[in-house]
């Protein structure tokens, strides 16, 4: 069975697609959830380094405030690079272990990887699925999710690589611009393609 990477812009609907595929029986890896588990684990190297380098984001209870951390790195490339230097190496190694463990298993393994192409992780996978939505839809979702102004949301989204190049490099593309039922139908089609050896190219 194939090992599949699920990627796309923030607000495009990756997590919804991942959850739909999980319900169908896929074994899934959610990068954001893994990162947050490291944030919560006070013994993890990620937690210790964030506490050392970003002491202002630690609450009185000793927890990492994701809201404060987001405010620190938002529109500040130097601080964002520092955070990425802490988190990315740990997550990449964790993801590589997960992919290795998925080999030759009789299940479809699907990982949600937001920075798939930027970190050149697409080479780990058999297939790549790109999920996106129209810019106005993404803008609305990001504003609602993070409580940003239109200007802030546009700045936030400008950090993402252009979608056109990623679409060209993907095996499947899901345009998430309609209803949930419409999205479910597209996921059904994707699932059938992933299950079929003929459609996978052998």
Short description:
54% of the residues lie in helices and 11% in strands. It is an alpha/beta fold. Helix 6 (135-146) packs across helix 7.
Describe the protein in words.
The protein is an alpha/beta fold and 202 residues long. It has helices at residues 14-23, 31-40, 45-53, 66-73, 77-102, 135-146, 150-157, 163-168, 180-195, 197-200, and strands spanning 3-7, 27-30, 109-112, 127-132, 172-175. It has a five-stranded parallel beta sheet with strand order 2-3-1-4-5, sandwiched between helices. The termini are close together. Residues 198-202 have low confidence and may be disordered.
Topology at a glance:
Elements: E1 3-7, H1 14-23, E2 27-30, H2 31-40, H3 45-53, H4 66-73, H5 77-102, E3 109-112, E4 127-132, H6 135-146, H7 150-157, H8 163-168, E5 172-175, H9 180-195, H10 197-200
Helix pairs in contact: 3-5, 6-7
Largest sheet report: 5 strands, parallel
Q: Helical segment tally?
A: 10
Provide the spatial order of strands within the biggest beta sheet.
Answer: 2-3-1-4-5
What's the average pLDDT?
A: 88
Instruction: List the domain count as a whole number.
Output: 1
Fraction of residues in helices? 40-55%
Features:
disordered C terminus; 5 strands; single chain; Rossmann fold; alpha/beta; 202 residues; five-stranded parallel sheet
């Amino acid at each position: 069975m194939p090992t599949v990477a699920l990627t796309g812009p923030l607000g495009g609907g990756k997590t919804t697609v991942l959850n739909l595929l999980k319900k169908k029986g896929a074994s899934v890896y959610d990068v954001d959830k893994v990162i947050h588990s490291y944030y919560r684990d006070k013994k993890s190297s990620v937690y210790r380094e964030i506490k050392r380098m970003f002491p202002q984001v630690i609450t009185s209870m000793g927890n990492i405030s994701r809201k404060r951390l987001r405010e620190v790195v938002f529109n500040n490339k130097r601080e964002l690079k520092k955070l990425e230097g802490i988190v990315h190496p740990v997550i990449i190694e964790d993801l590589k272990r997960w992919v290795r463990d998925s080999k030759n298993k009789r299940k479809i393994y699907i990982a949600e990887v937001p920075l798939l192409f930027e970190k050149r992780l697409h080479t780990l996978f058999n297939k790549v699925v790109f999920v996106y939505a129209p810019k106005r839809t993404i803008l609305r979702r990001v504003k609602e999710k993070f409580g940003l102004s239109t200007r802030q949301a546009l700045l936030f989204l400008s950090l993402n690589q252009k979608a056109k190049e990623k679409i060209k490099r993907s095996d499947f593309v899901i345009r998430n611009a309609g209803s949930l039922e419409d999205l479910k139908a597209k996921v059904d089609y994707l699932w059938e393609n992933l299950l079929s050896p003929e459609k996978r190219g052998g």
